[in-house]
Write a structure and sequence with these properties.
It is built from five helices and eight strands; from the N terminus they run ββααββββββααα. It has 245 residues and is an alpha+beta fold. The protein has one domain. The strands form two sheets. A five-stranded antiparallel beta sheet has the order 1-2-3-4-5, covered by helices on one side. About 7% of the residues have low confidence.
Length: 245
């Protein structure tokens, strides 16, 4: 089981495991099982395709055009240096050719990049970069922060970023509504609370309620600045009577 290296500690810059506000992200039932959105959504797992985070076309341009740029540079260098009777560094050109090939090949062979929330197991699986395996770790040890990784003529807003257990790299997840998306994740991963808003969860609310009732409605794992009531007033009254909250 992966765990973030202790040398980074719990110091500033990380978001508290707190439901800051009611998330606007409401997972709709019709988007479940659509590989472009949510692979699985129920009372046990929330699995989201993280490979399409942001604008997918931007990533296509990066992979394809970077590869083509490498090929063009190799061809341009060869033509110019031959024209001026200059010697060629074939090793450098070969490495550049391989780099261009890699970017194009990676576009067509890149592995699945899925954000996996295991509600009952208390685990989160964070996608990794390139072909490296994803990290699975206890959610209580996960660190989240704001991320602004781009600039220039087409900058995007900040993203929710999860730190990898290596303590150095991170991955952007979900979208650009940092506080709302993090609130959604914390809410879903608090197995002692009702499921968050969204029609995709509706058919699982009763069974999730019965599970928590059988456990005596234990207190929430993480704090919240907003109310997280049960689906009905009757269920809410029962939770308060048994669990006291």
């Amino acid at each position: 089981m992966a765990k973030i290296k202790k040398r980074y500690g719990k110091w500033g810059g990380y978001l508290e495991k707190l439901i800051y506000e009611k998330p606007k992200r409401k997972v709709e039932k019709e988007k479940v099982n659509d590989p472009d959105y949510y692979v699985r959504v129920d009372n046990q797992f929330f699995i989201m395709n993280n490979g399409l985070i942001g604008n997918v076309y931007i990533y296509i341009y990066i992979y394809i055009y970077t590869g083509l740029a490498g090929y063009f540079f190799v061809l341009f260098t060869v033509v110019v240096r031959l024209f001026f009777n200059k010697s060629l560094s074939f090793i450098f050109l070969f490495l550049l050719f391989l780099l261009g090939t890699f970017f194009i090949a990676y576009h067509y062979t890149r592995p699945k990049k899925e954000l996996v929330l295991n509600r009952l197991g208390g685990l989160i699986t964070i996608p990794n970069t390139l072909y490296f395996k994803p990290y699975t770790m206890p959610f209580k040890d996960a660190l989240a922060a704001w991320s602004v990784k781009n600039s220039g003529i087409n900058p995007t807003g900040p993203s929710l970023s999860l730190l990898h257990p290596n303590g150095f790299t991170s991955i952007d997840v979900m979208g650009h509504e940092v506080i709302e998306d993090w609130s959604f994740i914390v809410w879903y991963m608090d197995k002692n609370r009702p499921l968050p808003p969204g029609s995709a969860f509706d058919e699982y609310r009763k069974s999730d309620y019965e599970r928590r009732k059988a456990e005596g409605f234990p207190k929430p794992l993480y704090p919240s600045k907003i109310s997280t009531p049960e689906a009905t007033k009757e269920q809410q009254a029962e939770r308060k009577r048994i669990g006291g909250w």
